[in-house]
Specification:
By secondary structure, this protein is α+β, with helices and mostly antiparallel strands. 21% of the residues lie in helices and 20% in strands. The chain has five helices and five strands; from the N terminus they run αββαβββααα. It has a five-stranded mixed beta sheet. β1 (21-26) and β2 form a beta hairpin. It is globular, with a radius of gyration of 19 Å.
C-alpha cells in the first residue's frame, strides 16, 4: 500500500496539517489560524477572532464600502508592492494566506494616535467611511485640510 501524505517518506507531499494553517498579516501583526472555516469571510474573522470592529457590515453585498480593507501583496514580476481594495464581507478569510491586510485600526500610529488626516477630520467633527481612509490616496483630503505641505502625507 502506498504511503499516505502524512507519512511523508523521503519528502513528497507535506502533511495535511501544513495545508490547514492560514498565515497572513493584519495591521502589521502576524496572524495564524489553524483549520479556518472556508466559509468564514474576512469581515467575520476580523470582528469575531481579532476583535477589530472598525470594519463594518453594511449591505453584505460589497456595494456600500463599509467593509473595505486594503490588501497588500508583493508582485514578484514587477518587484513592487500592490495595494488592493477588498470587500471584507465577500472575501473568504482563507484567500488572505500570505497577504497583508490593513484595516481602519491600522491607519494610525503604533502608539494609538490618529493619522494626521484622521485627526483633522475628527477635530472638525466630521466623519469618513473606511473605504476612503484605508484604500485611497489621502492626498485629496490632506490638501483640503492643508496637511500635504506639512509632510503629513
Amino acid at each position: 500500500m502506498p504511503p499516505t501524505p502524512d507519512q511523508n517518506p523521503g519528502g513528497g507531499l507535506a502533511p495535511p496539517s501544513a495545508f490547514s494553517l492560514l498565515v497572513f498579516f493584519v495591521n502589521g501583526k502576524k496572524v495564524e489560524a489553524a483549520s479556518p472555516d472556508p466559509a468564514c469571510t474576512l469581515l467575520t474573522f476580523l470582528r469575531t477572532q481579532l476583535r477589530l470592529c472598525g470594519t463594518k457590515l453594511g449591505c453584505g453585498e460589497g456595494g456600500c464600502g463599509a467593509c473595505t480593507v486594503m490588501v497588500s501583496r508583493f508582485n514578484r514580476r514587477e518587484g513592487r508592492l500592490e495595494h488592493l481594495s477588498v470587500n471584507a464581507c465577500l472575501a473568504p478569510v482563507v484567500s488572505m494566506h500570505g497577504l497583508a491586510v490593513t484595516t481602519i485600526e491600522g491607519i494610525g500610529s503604533a502608539g494609538g494616535r490618529l493619522h494626521a488626516v484622521q485627526q483633522r477630520i475628527a477635530g472638525g467633527h466630521g466623519s469618513q467611511c473606511g473605504f476612503y481612509l484605508v484604500t485611497h490616496s489621502q492626498a485629496p483630503v490632506a490638501r483640503h485640510f492643508g496637511l500635504s505641505a506639512r509632510g503629513h502625507c
